Amino acid sequence: MPHNLTPFLFHWIITSLSLWVASHVFSGIRFDNTASLVISALLLGFANAILRPLLVLLTLPLTLFTFGLFLLVINALMILLVSSIVRGFNVSGFWTAFFASIFISILSFIFELFIGAPIPPQSGTWI
């Protein structure tokens, strides 16, 4: 397995696990099957990597005005976006997504602390 793929798979598994736990903690989050959970975790990772930075940049004045609290709204919107795209992933509303995004972020951080994230090689060569 390529070394660059290992951190990606690790974060995908952590996100999937965090989403699964959140679906048991919050009654407003539901997955119809395992495939919808895994696809949701993958799309949430892509949305956070591609779309979230753009939204942060566009809403920078509002984020600065709210001392960064608007970032929580952006996180909730990412979850709502993914739930609208993935069939089988249902979120009951904004506030469920809001509090679930906080929970998922904290839980993912804790999982990564205890499991230990793999560090990609820093060789400087193109592999």
Estimate the strand proportion.
under 5%
- Write down the domain tally: 1
Question: In oligomeric terms, what are we looking at?
Answer: single chain
Order of helices and strands: HEHHHEH
Low-confidence spans: none
The helical percent reads over 70%
Determine the number of helices (DSSP H or I, runs of at least 4 residues). Answer: 5
Count of individual beta strands: 2
Mean pLDDT: 89
Calculate the terminal CA-CA distance, rounded to whole Å: 12 Å
Widest sheet, order of strands: 1-2
In angstroms, what is the radius of gyration?
16 Å
Describe this structure in words.
The chain has 127 residues and is mainly α. The protein has one domain. It is built from five helices and two strands, in the order αβαααβα.
Which features would summarize this protein structure in a list?
127 residues, mainly alpha, 5 helices, globular
Summarize this structure briefly.
With 127 residues, this protein is mostly helical.
Walk me through the topology.
Blueprint: H1 5-25, E1 29-31, H2 34-58, H3 60-65, H4 70-85, E2 89-91, H5 94-115
Helix pairs in contact: 1-2, 1-5, 2-4, 4-5
